[in-house]
Design brief:
Shape of chain A: globular
Number of strands of chain A: 4
Number of helices of chain A: 3
Strand order of the largest sheet of chain A: 2-3-1-4
Order of helices and strands of chain A: EHEEHHE
Oligomer: homodimer
Largest interface: A-B, 39 and 39 residues
Strand content of chain A: 35-45%
Radius of gyration of chain A: 14 Å
Distance between the termini of chain A: 16 Å
C-alpha cells in the first residue's frame, strides 16, 4: 500500500488521471493491474502507491531517471499508453520528479 | 481537481497516509479542508490534487522549496500536524520533490 522507498534521493512519476466516462469496457482494470506487475519487474523499480476515487493518483518510485525512461519505452507499456489515450482516460497529467526529502510517521 | 501547474521546474509535497481507524470524531474532514484553504493563501502555492480511498494521496504544488518550508512552519498548520500524529493518521510518508518534467493529455 505504502511504497517502502530508500533514503532520498530517488525519482518518481506522479500520474494524475480521470477515466473516460464513455469507456464501459472491462479492459482498464486488467491493463492497469498488468502494468503494475510489469513495472515491478523493471530494473530500478522501487515501489508504487495508487488510489482512485474519481480522480486517480498513482505514484511510482524509481532509482533513476534512466529507469523511468526505460519503463516509458517498454513495448507492452507503449501499447497500454496508446490504449490509455484512445480509450481509458479523459485527461491526465504525468509529472517526473526527483524526491529530495522524506519524513515518516510513526 | 487537477492542479493547473506552470512549466517545470517547480516543487511538490507528496503526502501518502492512512487514517487512524480508532478516530471516529468528525474533526478530520474540517481540519483537512481548512488546511487546503489555508495552503491556497500561502505565497508560492500552485495547486493541489487529493484523493482518498483507504490510502490517501495528496500532492500540493509549490514555486520553491522555501515556499514549502514556510508552509510547513505556519502556526495553524503546525497545530494540525500535531493533531494528525496524535489522532488522524495511522501512518504517513511525506516526500518533498522537484518536478522536472510534465506531460499532459489531451
Amino acid at each position: 500500500m505504502f511504497a517502502d522507498t530508500p533514503a532520498p534521493p530517488y525519482f518518481a512519476v506522479i500520474f494524475s488521471s480521470t477515466r473516460n466516462p464513455a469507456d464501459t469496457a472491462d479492459a482498464y482494470d486488467a491493463v492497469a493491474q498488468r502494468m503494475v506487475e510489469l513495472a515491478q519487474q523493471q530494473p530500478g523499480f522501487l515501489g508504487v502507491e495508487s488510489v482512485r476515487n474519481g480522480l486517480g493518483i498513482t505514484v511510482s518510485y524509481w532509482e533513476s531517471r534512466e529507469a523511468i525512461d526505460h519503463w516509458g519505452q517498454h513495448l507492452e507499456h507503449l501499447t497500454a499508453q496508446k490504449l490509455g489515450r484512445k480509450q481509458f482516460y479523459d485527461r491526465y497529467i504525468l509529472r517526473v520528479v526527483e524526491v529530495q526529502e522524506e519524513r515518516r510517521f510513526p
